[in-house]
Specification:
Cytochrome Bc1 Complex, Chain D, domain 2; 37% helix; 2 strands; 2 domains; two-stranded antiparallel sheet; mainly alpha
Length: 358
């Protein structure tokens, strides 16, 4: 009898177990902290970058951040996503001189490209790291900036954005999978977007292939590289020497543009007179895709940029010493062949594989 009762009990337990839903097994939205396999470049000069302990890269977190990045739900009128101004085909920059906001507002700066951002946290040790004027000190805060900007995504409050995501049919489940809870918060939103942005790594240009001995540089590229890395061109002071693969010093400089009193750059953040007109040094990678150039998009072509440094820089009280030392003649005075060589070197920094939607 006892054996029969035990058999019946086991049978009932088996039936009950098969009917009971286990939230950790077979649930595609169950919390899944599986680490994201971030593959860093193995070229000479590349290094790892710091990842915040409270925001590790996970498959679910990166996937959520990518979905959010391309979703217009983050804008006040559901018309504009992060990708509207940071387009893959433009190396996550904008082809417009000034980006256009959710309600048609025209900004006063060109959208910066988004790649290799995470190394900023390693090489810029100040509290001013992201945006042209250094207005955000980490990727998480940078991710939220455009969402609240009245000229960009035009939300008046993060509460409105969080409410839209919380009431969405799928997002609460995706937040649970990434962060362990259906509750959507602005902190989790920032973390997801930052996770995705940390995975945007560009490292497969012709310059990288030459570094890996996968191709030979042309003579013009070699000539341009010499101009770039010596006092002849002075590019390396702000964009890094050839042992650094990032082609930026991650800092801020007044590069000799005629400063706009309405856009004071780093001065807007620090209030220090010596920072007036200083803007973040962009990477020189992927220049064929990221034009127009400068923070205000004033130059349409790379040759215009080269000509500016060659003969068009303007003096001012805060201009960088690397620029001011060329005054009074006001430039590099490169010959036409030298300008072509420098251009060909810069074009070798294009990573065509990065701008393909995978």
């Amino acid at each position: 009898m006892k054996a029969r009762n035990l058999l019946v009990g086991l049978l009932f337990l088996g039936i009950w177990s098969s009917c009971k839903k286990d939230p950790e097994v077979g649930d595609s939205y169950a919390y899944n902290p599986e680490p994201y396999n971030l593959v860093l470049p193995n070229n000479l000069g590349w290094s790892s970058f710091p990842i915040p302990a409270d925001n590790p890269l996970t498959n679910a977190g990166v996937a959520l951040g990518e979905k959010l990045f391309f979703d217009p739900i983050l804008s006040a009128n559901n018309t504009q996503s992060c990708a509207s101004c940071h387009q893959i085909s433009n190396s996550f920059a904008d082809s417009n001189k000034f980006s256009i906001g959710a309600f048609g507002q025209v900004g006063n700066r060109a959208a910066m490209p988004l790649f290799n951002l995470a190394w900023t946290d390693k090489y810029n040790l100040t509290g001013h790291r992201y945006f042209w004027d250094g207005g955000a000190n980490d990727l998480e805060r940078q991710a939220l900036g455009p969402i609240l900007n009245p000229v960009e995504m035009a939300n008046t409050s993060l509460f409105d954005v969080v409410a839209r995501l919380q009431n969405h049919a799928e997002y609460p489940s995706l937040f649970r999978k990434a962060f362990g809870s259906d509750s959507v918060t602005s902190v989790k939103l920032a973390k997801a977007l930052a996770q995705y942005e940390r995975t945007l790594i560009s490292s497969n240009s012709n310059w990288d292939k030459a570094e890996r001995r996968q191709r030979l540089r042309t003579q013009s590229e070699i000539n341009g590289m010499v101009i770039f890395s010596t006092e002849k061109g002075d590019c390396f002071h702000c964009h890094g020497n050839l042992s650094s693969p990032y082609f930026t010093d991650f800092g801020f400089h007044n590069n000799g543009l005629m400063a706009n009193p309405k856009d004071s750059g780093l001065f807007r953040i620090t209030g220090r007179p010596e920072d007036f007109g200083k803007m973040k040094t962009p990477s020189l990678r992927n220049l064929s895709f990221t034009g127009p150039y400068m923070h205000d998009g004033r130059f349409k072509t790379l040759m215009e940029v080269i000509e500016f440094y060659n003969s068009g820089t303007q003096n001012s009280p805060t201009v960088d010493p690397m620029i001011s030392k060329s005054f009074p003649h006001g430039g590099l005075n490169l010959t036409p062949p030298e300008k072509i060589d420098l251009l060909n070197f810069l074009l070798s920094l294009n990573d065509s594989s990065f701008v393909v939607n995978k």
